Automatic annotation (TrEMBL):
One of its GO terms (cellular component) is endoplasmic reticulum membrane. CDD domains: 11beta-HSD1_like_SDR_c. PROSITE patterns: ADH_SHORT. Belongs to the short-chain dehydrogenases/reductases (SDR) family. GO terms for molecular function: all-trans-retinol dehydrogenase (NADP+) activity; carbonyl reductase (NADPH) activity. SUPFAM superfamilies: NAD(P)-binding Rossmann-fold domains (SSF51735). This is Dehydrogenase/reductase 7. Keywords: Oxidoreductase. InterPro entries: NAD(P)-bd_dom_sf (IPR036291), Sc_DH/Rdtase_CS (IPR020904), SDR_fam (IPR002347), SDR_family_member_7 (IPR053011).
Length: 355
């Protein structure tokens, strides 16, 4: 009997140690635990290293089309993909900025001029998407990965915001994205393989004040791509991957929608407390290489809120209501909504989200 009790105590202690290790790992995490496991070991059980499923091995030589590639996450994606050795199609509205990105890609990689296609694209001009897709296919012969990264965020209260702003957000972030996806997916279905990666946001999982339209567009993308995935069960080699970043150091905040289409944001605020763009992009590429259906990429406390919203939504509502009041007060006072230094809040209480 004493031997059995000792064994039970030993097993209980082992379980507690394992749980403690997971808790420590989670507290230090900058992505969900599935993603961090994929970064460490890859998706293939029993592999000693992640070489089989690292971006360097999975994406080298692949044709990757990145939208919104003239700045922020899209620009950094172009740089990291070029270093890996992926062939690139980069798109945005500003062709001169795309040429700048291409020039740097050529400087930091072994790619040649023909390996990078600059393709001006307006996501709101849906009539141009078929021709753009055909241009990429004509140039490279295929499209292995589409990264839907183009879009804009928002900073305005619903009652102050014109409805045409909401129409513009949905036209760009949602309808433009699924329009382009439709044309690229047709090509992937013909080849029976491919990856469609959509840069959503943690706001596609939760809600937050001052971004109701942006949040709605990201919820729409999450619902659409989660549904699309269920329609592609006959094509197991076509992956639908949703990336949900939290606050990232990018220029998205400088180009946000406000209460009317003609107005720009006056104060973009300090970005230094946010996740570095290169880290966000690295984890995005890990998610892509490992075919993760959904990845949360964020530091705490934003990552913690994702888990709270997923598993304890009542607590999440309570917490967001409290933090949301301060965020709105900052905004109305002329401060950046996420400026915790001037508001007197500690950084861990700043709730601002941007992809």
């Amino acid at each position: 009997m004493s031997w059995g009790c000792g064994l039970c105590q030993l097993l209980a202690g082992g379980v507690l140690l394992a749980l403690l290790a997971q808790l420590v790992r989670w507290l230090r995490a900058d992505g969900d635990l599935t993603l961090l496991w994929a970064e460490w070991r890859g998706k293939k059980p029993g592999s000693i290293a992640c070489l089989q499923t690292s971006p360097e091995t999975e994406l080298r030589g692949k044709v990757v089309w990145v939208t919104g590639a003239s700045s922020g996450i899209g620009e950094e994606l172009a740089y990291q993909l070029s270093k890996i050795g992926a062939f690139l199609a980069i798109s945005a509205r500003r062709e001169d900025e795309l040429e700048r990105v291409k020039k740097k890609c050529l400087q930091i990689s072994t790619l040649t001029e023909k390996d990078i296609l600059v393709l001006r694209l307006d996501l709101t001009d849906r009539s141009s998407h078929e021709a753009a897709t055909n241009s990429v296919i004509k140039h490279f012969g295929k499209i292995d990965v589409l990264v839907n990264n183009g879009g804009r965020s928002q900073r305005s209260l619903f009652m102050d915001t014109n409805l045409d702003v909401y129409s513009a957000i949905m036209e760009l972030n949602y309808l433009g994205t699924i329009s382009l996806t439709k044309h690229v997916l047709k090509h992937m279905i013909e080849r029976k393989r491919g990856k469609i990666v959509t840069v959503s946001s943690v706001m596609g999982i939760m809600g937050a004040p001052l971004a109701s339209g942006y949040c709605a567009s990201k919820h729409a993308l999450q619902g659409f791509f989660n549904s699309l995935r269920t329609e592609l069960t006959d094509y197991p080699e076509i992956s639908i991957i949703n990336i949900c970043p939290g606050p990232v150091q990018s220029k998205i905040i400088q180009n946000v929608f406000t209460e009317n289409l003609a107005k720009s944001l006056e104060n973009s605020g300090d970005q230094s407390h946010k996740m570095p763009t290169d880290r966000c992009v690295r984890l995005t590429l890990v998610s892509t290489a490992n075919d993760l259906k959904e990845a949360w990429i964020s530091d705490h406390p934003y990552l913690a809120v994702c888990y709270l919203w997923q598993y304890a939504p009542t607590w999440a509502w309570w917490l967001m209501n409290r933090m949301g009041k301060r965020r709105i007060q900052n905004f109305k006072s002329g401060l950046d909504a996420e400026n915790t230094r001037e508001s007197g809040l500690p950084p861990s209480c700043s709730f601002s989200f941007a992809s």
